[in-house]
């Protein structure tokens, strides 16, 4: 933990975990209430205090960003699965069409060769 002495007040530029350990806090406790604050008193102005920024503080906003990040990840995964299934379907359809086309070509070749064979037999028998 980093402690910096600034005037009469001790500043702690610490992380949440360090503050939790220092004050023996649980995860449910609000760390911001236990941070060392420096009073700022100026003449003619309201008295206020200044506190160091707490690093790695889990706020509702941080949790919201995390939820959004996870939701986007799930959405991407779902979309990719759907697109992969659609592509597999298209690929299967094209393979089937190619197979049918090839079968037609083979059948056509067989018909032509059998026609040639039958005509050549008939010609040879006529001679």
UniProtKB/TrEMBL annotation:
Membrane-crossing residue ranges in chain numbering: none
Domain of life (superkingdom): Eukaryota
GO biological process: ribosome biogenesis; translation
Stretches of the chain forming a coiled coil according to its record: none
Statement: the UniProt record of this protein carries the keyword Iron-sulfur: no
GO molecular function: structural constituent of ribosome
InterPro entries recorded: Ribosomal_eS6
Entry GO terms, CC: ribonucleoprotein complex; ribosome
Gene3D superfamilies the UniProt entry points to: 1.20.5.2650
Record's compositionally biased regions (Low complexity): 114-127
Keyword Ribonucleoprotein: yes
Task performed by this protein: Component of the 40S small ribosomal subunit. Plays an important role in controlling cell growth and proliferation through the selective translation of particular classes of mRNA. Part of the small subunit (SSU) processome, first precursor of the small eukaryotic ribosomal subunit.
Family: Belongs to the eukaryotic ribosomal protein eS6 family.
Protein name: Small ribosomal subunit protein eS6
Organism of derivation: Rattus norvegicus
């Amino acid at each position: 933990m980093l402690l910096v002495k600034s005037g009469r007040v001790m500043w702690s530029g610490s992380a949440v975990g360090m503050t939790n350990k220092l004050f023996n806090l649980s995860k449910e406790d609000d760390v911001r209430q236990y941070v060392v604050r420096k009073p700022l008193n100026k003449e003619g102005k309201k008295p206020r205090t200044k506190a160091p920024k707490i690093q790695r503080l889990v706020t509702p906003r941080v949790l919201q960003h995390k939820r959004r990040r996870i939701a986007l990840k799930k959405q991407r995964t779902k979309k990719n699965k759907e697109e992969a299934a659609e592509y597999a379907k298209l690929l299967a359809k094209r393979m089937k069409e190619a197979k049918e086309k090839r079968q037609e070509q083979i059948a056509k070749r067989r018909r032509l060769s059998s026609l040639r064979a039958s005509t050549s037999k008939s010609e040879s028998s006529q001679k």
